[in-house]
Design brief:
The protein is built from 13 helices and twelve strands. It is of the alpha/beta class. Among the domains are: about 130 residues, Rossmann fold (3-Layer(aba) Sandwich); about 150 residues, NAD(P)-binding Rossmann-like Domain (Rossmann fold, 3-Layer(aba) Sandwich), CATH 3.40.50.720. α3 crosses α4. The chain is globular, with a radius of gyration of 21 Å. Bound molecules: nicotinamide-adenine-dinucleotide. Nicotinamide-adenine-dinucleotide (NAD) binds next to α6 and β7.
């Protein structure tokens, strides 16, 4: 289907935004009378492009391009991460903001969808340059964010420290301290216990449920993981603790295979020091070999558009749980469906992060903090309930889990849109 797209998004290079639009097309036949409102999902509510100038340590001035996009705010304030990566574009950030709208609706937390980023390779910046860039960017997007307006969080190449700088900059500009402006903060600044591994815990919980539905147990299951960062790294640990074997891994530095399972604690120690898997013991394999490696569960936890028609048909796993946002293209989705591979889509699989972000935001507002057990328990219940609801919708309409998840998310957003009505 051809789309009337926002004119500032390059129609020849839609990338992840094109994937998202295709997903909306696939869900539209199931939306009934709400279809009248579906166009609202195909365009962001507002987008901001900012120039981020900083003085480098060598005295020269560098300029970076930054973005913050509010995709949909029908159900609450914007929510979504901040990405620092050299390939960040407005189109990518727009897609990621849209997936946040769907995700917050799927787990039924009272947020809309937003996302931001800076087109930069942060590995090339010193710590003080990184801080200056983060603070200037926060100031430039100041009019978009706030505890009641839009609450950023970490994403690729951003972390607790970046959130601390963002919170401090926002609070200094406002003239008072308000910790709820970002989530994924350090505990000492009002962060939540359990947030650090919440996304991975959600991935683990839905993998456990989906694998259970296949009458299989995680103990002894062979896992392949792309990306050993915040999401993939903690996921590796949780799967290993459940007795599964992490047999294949890939990151920006290469791919490794070990049929007996890696020592995950040693692997994560190596990654935290070296910032990459390169140098860790294991059989070095190519990217193509990684995708075709013998495994039961595959967890893409790096970037978008990684599972494509070029590698989908060689995948051995019977279950794919999308830790990353948008890792599978629609064409690859079709190939996997024909191969009878179950794909648990990103908008439920990695929703554990935004769920505990919601818990963090609630705790900040009430200034009353919960125990880690409470948080993990509430997360488990919420993810299991959401996943069961999606499985019921998938059965009812005889559709893939992705389409079912989009039916649940889009219905919630569009019902809110319809109830609020158009102004004027
Ligand atoms: P991160 O920066 O902590 O880790 C990213 C990982 O991807 C690293 O291991 C890196 O080496 C790897 N990687 C980068 N480029 C690669 C390439 N070309 N090939 C293979 N590997 C590559 O990021 P993260 O926070 O773990 O996010 C990973 C994914 O999960 C992203 O899609 C993000 O949007 C999504 N996500 C993150 C969160 C969160 O709470 N952090 C929540 C929901 C979804």
């Amino acid at each position: 289907m051809s789309h009337e797209i926002a004119s500032y998004l390059d129609p020849k290079n839609l990338g992840a935004w094109g994937t998202y639009l295709e997903q909306i097309d696939r869900v539209t036949p199931y939306l009934g009378p709400l279809t009248r409102w579906v166009e609202t999902l195909k365009r962001p509510k507002r987008s901001l492009i900012v120039d981020v100038p900083i003085e480098l340590d060598n005295g020269t001035i560098a300029h970076f391009e930054g973005y913050r996009v509010h995709h949909n705010l029908s159900r609450g304030p914007g929510k979504g991460g901040i990405r620092f990566h050299p390939d960040v574009t407005l189109s990518e950030v727009t897609a990621l903001s849209a997936w946040m709208s769907i995700k917050t609706a799927v787990v039924n937390v009272p947020f809309g969808g937003a996302k931001g980023g800076i087109r930069v390779d942060p590995k090339k910046l010193s710590q003080s340059e990184l801080e200056r860039m983060t603070r200037r960017f926060t100031s430039e997007i100041n009019m978009m964010i706030g505890p009641q307006k839009d609450i950023p969080a970490p994403d690729v190449n951003t972390n607790e420290q970046i959130m601390a700088w963002m919170m401090d900059t926002y609070c200094v500009n406002q003239g008072y301290t308000t910790s709820g402006v970002v989530t994924g903060k350090p505990i000492s600044l009002g962060g939540s216990l359990g947030r650090r591994d919440a996304t991975s815990r959600g991935v683990f919980v839905v993998a456990r449920e989906a694998y259970g539905q296949m009458n299989r147990e995680l103990s002894g299951a062979r896992i392949a993981i792309q990306g050993l960062g915040n999401v993939g790294g903690h996921a590796a640990r949780l799967f290993a603790q459940a007795g599964a074997k992490v047999v294949a891994i890939q990151d920006h530095s290469g791919a490794l295979y070990n049929p007996n399972g890696f020592d995950v604690d040693a692997l994560l120690d190596h990654v935290s020091l070296a910032r990459e898997i390169n140098g860790f013991p294991g059989e070095s394999i190519t990217s193509q070999q990684f995708w075709s490696s013998p495994c039961d569960i595959l967890i893409p936890a790096a970037l978008e558009s990684q599972i494509t028609p070029a590698n989908a048909s060689s995948i051995q796993a019977k279950l794919i749980v999308e830790g990353a946002n948008g890792p599978t293209t629609p064409e690859a989705d079709d190939i996997l469906r024909d191969m009878n591979v179950t794909v648990v889509p990103d908008v439920i699989a990695n929703a554990g992060g935004v769920t505990v972000s919601y818990f963090e935001w609630v705790q900040d507002f009430s200034s009353f903090f919960w125990t880690e057990e409470e948080i993990n328990h509430r997360l488990d219940i919420l993810m299991v309930d959401a996943f069961k609801g999606i499985c019921d919708v998938a059965k009812k309409h005889d559709v893939s889990l992705r389409t079912a998840t989009f039916i649940v998310g889009c219905e919630r957003i569009l019902k809110a849109r319809q109830m609020r009505g158009l102004y004027p």
